[in-house]
Amino acid sequence: MKRFSHLHIVLIALIVSVTSGCLGDKGNTLDSYDVGTVTEINGQQCLKLDNINIYISGSGMPQYTADPVTRCFCTFHIDWDSQPDNAAASGIYSATINTDAVWNVENYLQSGGNPFPGSDSLVNISQPYITNLTSSQIITFQTSAYRSENASYQLSVEEVDAANNAITLNLVYDAVNEDKSSVVNSWHSFILPTIDDTYTLNIRFKSHTTPSFSIIKYTDPTAPENNTYIFTTKYEPLAGNNTGSAQ
């Protein structure tokens, strides 16, 4: 059993503080904050935002190389009415990235299991899936859950099982006072190790509620009475290098 020290968790807050495009006398704008990854499209460097799943570039964006992966936590302003003519075609939107941005991924990565605040409930997880790949070492997926202010849970990464070519991501939570009238859609990103062979990537979670989608029931040898489920996919090395791609 081998632990990769750089298997960390990108802890994502409830990002989009402003969800409406029309903000009174401010016009058609968005002021919010997010965690993102520096990437490049057609030679233009930009920031891929995790939660609203768009690319931005503009004032406040320094230049970084795509390798090693550069992650950023930032507040930003987008004026939808003052976009370049080619914004929709290029997929990159003009934005002002504020000076409080932190361009250092390590500040937003923590190893091991870390408690989450109860407001970020994962009570009734549904449809965990890979939504986008912002770099060859970052996997991002979204969960949909009932809100619960009294839930206690962790999101963590187990040791890599090198002998069996397996990586397991754990989501463990205990629900109290579910609010089934309110759903939280959270995004989660993981830094994965560089690899030379195909790995099995397991997303394993515990729930007091049976998931509403087809998924494998996992028997926890330490607590077989617990309702634990597992979602499995593959993590493969990219041709020509030793970084990986989740499929």
Quick overview of this protein structure:
The protein is an all-beta fold. A hairpin with a 6-residue loop joins strand 17 and strand 18.
Question: How is this structure best described in words?
Answer:
Strands 9, 12, 13, 15, 16, 17 and 18 form a seven-stranded mixed sheet that branches. This protein has a six-stranded mixed sheet with strand order 6-4-3-2-5-7. 2% of the residues lie in helices and 46% in strands. Strand 3 and strand 4 form a beta hairpin. It has one helix at residues 87-90; strands at 9-10, 29-41, 44-49, 55-57, 71-79, 92-94, 96-97, 109-110, 114-115, 126-135, 138-147, 152-157, 166-174, 179-191, 199-206, 216-218, 228-237, 244-246. The chain contains one helix and 18 strands. The chain is mostly beta strands. Mean pLDDT is 60; it is low at 1-26, 105-133 and 239-247. The protein has two domains: 24-109; 112-246, Sandwich (Immunoglobulin-like). The protein starts with 8 loop residues before the first strand and ends with a strand.
Topology:
Blueprint (H helix, E strand, L loop, with lengths): L8 E2 L18 E13 L2 E6 L5 E3 L13 E9 L7 H4 L1 E3 L1 E2 L11 E2 L3 E2 L10 E10 L2 E10 L4 E6 L8 E9 L4 E13 L7 E8 L9 E3 L9 E10 L6 E3 L1
Parallel strand pairs: 4-6, 13-15
Antiparallel strand pairs: 1-8, 1-14, 2-3, 2-5, 3-4, 5-7, 9-12, 10-11, 11-14, 12-13, 15-17, 16-17, 17-18
